[in-house]
Amino acid sequence: MKTLEEIAEALKNTYMEHEVEAKLPLIEEIQKLKKEKNAVLLGHNYMTPDVFHGVSDITGDS
């Protein structure tokens, strides 16, 4: 699982700094819930960057 710092760096390529800071608490909560529920989230490249880079465990394009 990526750290919040790694996620923030990935998101800074797409979002402004204040947008990244606003998204991080929700990403952190989702990461916590995934761990509690033993869940895996699949991400596709058409998803928004915060979902694709922030909470997806397995990513792809097809």
TrEMBL record:
Pfam family, one: NadA
GO biological process: NAD+ biosynthetic process
GO molecular function, one term: 4 iron, 4 sulfur cluster binding
SUPFAM superfamilies: NadA-like
Superkingdom of the source species: Bacteria
InterPro entries listed in its UniProt record: NadA (IPR003473), NadA_sf (IPR036094)
Identification of the protein by name: Uncharacterized protein
